[in-house]
Design brief:
This protein has 7 helices and 6 strands; from the N terminus they run E-H-E-H-E-H-H-E-H-E-E-H-H. With 189 residues, it is an alpha/beta fold. A 6-stranded mixed beta sheet has the order 3-2-1-4-6-5, with helices on both faces. Helix 3 packs across helix 5. The radius of gyration is 17 Å and the shape is elongated.
Length: 189
């Protein structure tokens, strides 16, 4: 049902916030990786990650969803650039392309709903600084050229290593109620 996937990752931990199951589910769809929370990440490391994540079928940008008022336009432009070739082919055949349908996907608490609100220019979707706020799939006509599907954050069933699990817990992707907060704080220190 979607033309492309906008995968949100946390710029503080781009590898740990990558859901390995998403690539299988993407089924070769074009992807835009958005590194959110770049204001909280090391800028030098963020630049290195941007270069590393770029590939033929994947584009990548970093944004500050909370403080950059122009981030919505940046994301729209990046998404349309990912789909440019396909849309140009449609225009060449005399077809007026419909709005691109993109799915916002990623781990809990990475900023999917916040990103859609920034693109739409208003707080249409409920967003909070905790995991589990989005509970269902929601389509939003965010822009005349971009329709977005907001999805709940999903973690995969088994983490590759303890470091990934700890990174997710440290950044709020895992609910506090299921964690031993004292043990987690000890490991963070």
């Amino acid at each position: 049902a979607v033309d492309m996937i906008i995968e949100l990752r946390d710029a503080r931990m781009p590898e740990s916030s990558r859901n390995p199951m998403l690539i299988q589910m993407a089924n070769q769809k074009p992807r835009l990786i958005v590194l959110s929370k770049m204001d909280q990440a090391d800028p030098v490391q963020t630049e290195l990650w941007l270069k590393k994540l770029q590939s033929e079928n994947v584009s990548c940008i970093a944004v500050d969803l909370m403080r950059d008022p122009g981030c919505g336009k940046k994301i729209i432009q990046a998404a349309l650039n990912v789909m440019k070739e396909k849309r140009d082919r449609q225009r060449a055949k005399g077809i007026n392309p419909r709005a691109v349908r993109a799915m916002a996907a990623g781990i809990p608490n990475v900023g999917k709903s916040t990103m859609i609100n920034r693109i739409a220019g208003k707080n249409t979707l409920k967003a909070a600084d905790k995991p589990g706020v989005t509970r269902s799939l929601t389509w939003l006509h965010a822009d005349k050229e971009l329709d977005l599907l907001d999805t709940p954050g999903v973690l995969w069933p088994k983490f590759e290593d303890e470091r990934t699990a700890l990174n997710l817990a440290f950044t709020g992707a895992i609910k506090d109620e299921i964690m031993d907060i004292e043990e987690l704080a000890y490991k963070l220190v």
